[in-house]
Amino acid sequence: MSLGSRKQLILQAIIEDYINTAEPVGSRTVSKKYLKDISPATIRNEMADLEEMGYIEQPHTSAGRVPSDKGYRLYVDRLMEQKTIDWHDYEFIRKEFMDTVGEIDRLIKHASKLLSAMTKYASIAMAPQFKRTCLKHLQLIKVDSHNILAVIVTDAGIIKNSVIRTDSDIEVDALEKISNMLNQKLIGLSIEELVNMDITKINSGINNNEDYKQVLTKVLPELLQALRYSERAEIYSDGAANLLDLPEYSDVQKAKDFFSILDKNDILYEILKDVSEKTTVTIGKENKIHQLKDCSIITATYSYNGKVIGSIGVLGPTRMNYSKVISIVDCLTQNLNDILTKIIKT
Amino acid sequence: MSLGSRKQLILQAIIEDYINTAEPVGSRTVSKKYLKDISPATIRNEMADLEEMGYIEQPHTSAGRVPSDKGYRLYVDRLMEQKTIDWHDYEFIRKEFMDTVGEIDRLIKHASKLLSAMTKYASIAMAPQFKRTCLKHLQLIKVDSHNILAVIVTDAGIIKNSVIRTDSDIEVDALEKISNMLNQKLIGLSIEELVNMDITKINSGINNNEDYKQVLTKVLPELLQALRYSERAEIYSDGAANLLDLPEYSDVQKAKDFFSILDKNDILYEILKDVSEKTTVTIGKENKIHQLKDCSIITATYSYNGKVIGSIGVLGPTRMNYSKVISIVDCLTQNLNDILTKIIKT
DNA sequence: ATTTAGCACTCGATAGTGATGAGTGCTAAC
DNA sequence: GTTAGCACTCATCACTATCGAGTGCTAAAT
């Protein structure tokens, strides 16, 4: 059976009405609110076909129809009008980001807050993934006799520090020279490469001075270890409470299941780690994480210097206002990219 | 009317049963489960007195009694047995912290996660309050021609960096000298003092060299501004989903109200900012934040070097297992203090 | 002077009932 | 191919009756 254009109109009407009301949509409603020149009876016939094709479902006899995952998918891919963000929202985002200053992690956190506030769904965000960036500058600073501070600047502007404890008192001069040597040798490498590097390889051929070598063998392993610990990016979520306003979560058990997921960083990490560069919609059971089979996720990435460094997403029920959320996510990541370029201007 | 010891026993029984069951407690239950040698009728008389005194309440006629805030307060202050943490929990905390390495913020986040997992309530935590610590080391690093990195180490081991943009290309040597000058002048000051400091005061009398002065007037304001932005400490919360298991939040509206609060960092900040050094219990309407009038909060602080640098807390219903939570919070902050001392060993 | 048994009373919770109405599928007429 | 008509389904809601946990009071027992 083919999907004639009238069937598409009816499907679109059902989906949009359901997105607004969360109530099963009947043939009468479609006829009265959306397609006034088609009678309910005709629509009923078409709906029976749409159900057979798997685009809509009936919760029970004598109820209206509800879109299936497959229906939403068709809607998102072909039916939905590509809304451009409305001016009000656009200005709001613009303004919010204009005032933002400070560290990049804080910026991402703020973006996540903004995203949940504007969409009224839950948002998640991953701070820049350190390991994908490249070393731009490394500096060892002597804090006191037993502590060395390593400061790492990467090409995405992410800055990390770690304190390295040493038994021996290393002289400031020596430290500076080691800093320089390491810089020469390591700059340009990605953090991922760096932490997996063979230490002896770094050591060899740098300098034959025994003093330095001794210090290096002490400092270097600690440094790499510290890097490893900060490898996994921070994950933020926000606006979970929004979902409690939705009828799909009036059942406390459902709500609980959802909230439990938001508390599990490893699951959120799974969602965000391998995100396609363009805005992506994942609907219901399409999701690999089975606990999210009643949710849809919209994800996008943000980049600096053409390099993807992190991602951000919106979680909501499959009955999500896809066009609105997509437009907001797009606008937000665009602004994020702009401001990142500005902040980390080199 | 005085609170005889039998009344106390009955009150204690009512509270402990209510903590376990969340159901109003009747005279029969008290007699059967707790005070077998007193008849229900006698207990009824005593309960009438306890109600008159305001320690318990009746949701409606023909229901059992429920503790009031005042009742819980008496229980916490005088009736409750001071439980020492059970060995299993103790070992668990000990072990969790043993394996923890990395940045201090991450440690606090982990502590919060642990706290909610063990208590089955929601937890909140404030990362070290930067502003209360004192400057120990300041270093300016030249990243490239337009960016200077300021690294700040404080006496509590907290490390912050901020990138300062400059129009003019400052030479490495000059930067180092400025670093040294600033160090001499500023070390020992608290960050709070520092950000409120008059810039001209710092400038004056350092060095008459015009070159440096020029640089200083550019760098210093930016530095102080950057410090101001990171002044407010990060706040984490965890385990909110736990509360959805409790019958008091089977009403979605109540749950929503609670979750909304957890999303508002300024409210959490209010809760955590002025916390007494010893573990504190705040019950129901005792709380300044009226949205939390049905909640109890248990807060405690963690310190480094005898100086309180942050706080941590548990949020739950007034029907909270006070003795258990207190013992866990105490044990956890103790371990936190220990490990902080170890990590930031100077 | 307490304590306790007995009893009438209150009131929320639960289950059963019937009416209502939104929505369907089918049939026959347009 | 489209639509009006109609019998049928089934969730929802309001109403009612019943049940039982728990109370307060009174009078008897200790």
From TrEMBL, chains A, B:
Gene3D superfamilies, alphabetized: 3.30.450.40, Heat-inducible transcription repressor hrca homolog, domain 3, Winged helix-like DNA-binding domain superfamily/Winged helix DNA-binding domain
Family assignment from sequence similarity: Belongs to the HrcA family.
Q: Which SUPFAM superfamilies match?
A: GAF domain-like, Winged helix' DNA-binding domain
Q: Which organism is it from?
A: Lutispora thermophila DSM 19022
Q: Which Pfam families match?
A: HrcA
- InterPro entries tied to this protein: GAF-like_dom_sf (IPR029016), HrcA (IPR002571), HrcA_C (IPR021153), WH-like_DNA-bd_sf (IPR036388), WH_DNA-bd_sf (IPR036390), WHTH_transcript_rep_HrcA_IDD (IPR023120)
A single GO BP: negative regulation of DNA-templated transcription
Q: What is this protein called?
A: Heat-inducible transcription repressor HrcA
